[in-house]
Amino acid sequence: MSLHAESMYEISLTEGLGPVKFGMSPGIVKSLLGSELCYEDWMGGNLENFLYYKGLLIGFCGEIDDHPTDSSLVCMFLVKTSHPLSLWGQKISNAKMEDIESLLKVKAIKCKLLQSGVLQCVDQELQFLFDSDGHLDEVYFAFKYS
């Protein structure tokens, strides 16, 4: 199983992204998505805490050497809207900022617009980044382990 551009993937703030769940080891993620990593320029540098696939960064916490180890756990995602995405059952891949703000309001989630143009949720690890046309480009979400 892998993330394919034609399949819709549900973002769950408590579970993860599609088949990849918070708390999974790198080995399980690779068994789901493949071990072939795909670097893209938008990902930046210093990716030692990540597995990276087309349009997707999966971050790990816990034991990290120069890459996630078997003791590392999935704790965050940064996903591009080249993957069809939904949040709370609503398709968001081509959403505008107003659409995302309305969806968050329905869920009573407070957010603020940062100077960088990022829509940041106040009480959760959830951010929405928009392109120059005002459409959703990336979604960041994470799970905090105690």
Structural notes for this entry:
The chain is mainly beta. Helices cover 12% and strands 34% of the residues. The protein has two domains: 9-80, no CATH class; 85-142, no CATH class. It has helices spanning 26-33, 97-106; strands at residues 9-12, 16-17, 20-21, 50-53, 56-61, 73-80, 85-87, 90-91, 111-113, 119-121, 126-130, 136-142. A hairpin with a 3-residue loop joins strand 1 and strand 2 (16-17). The longest helix has 10 residues, at 97-106. The protein is globular.
Number of domains: 2
Assembly state (oligomeric)? single chain
Count of strand segments: 12
Count, helices: 2
Radius of gyration: 15 Å
- Helix content range: 10-25%
Structural class: mainly beta
What's the rounded overall pLDDT mean? Answer: 91
Beta-strand percentage range:
25-35%
Q: How is the largest sheet built, in terms of strand order?
A: 4-5-6-12-11-10-9
Order of helices and strands: EEEHEEEEEHEEEE
Q: Looking at the structure, what is the overall shape?
A: globular
Kindly, what is the distance between the CA atoms of the first and last residues, rounded to a whole number of angstroms?
Answer: 30 Å
For the biggest sheet, the summary is:
7 strands, antiparallel
Residue runs with pLDDT of under 50 for 5 or more positions: none
Features of this protein?
146 residues, mainly beta, 2 domains, seven-stranded antiparallel sheet, five-stranded mixed sheet, 12 strands
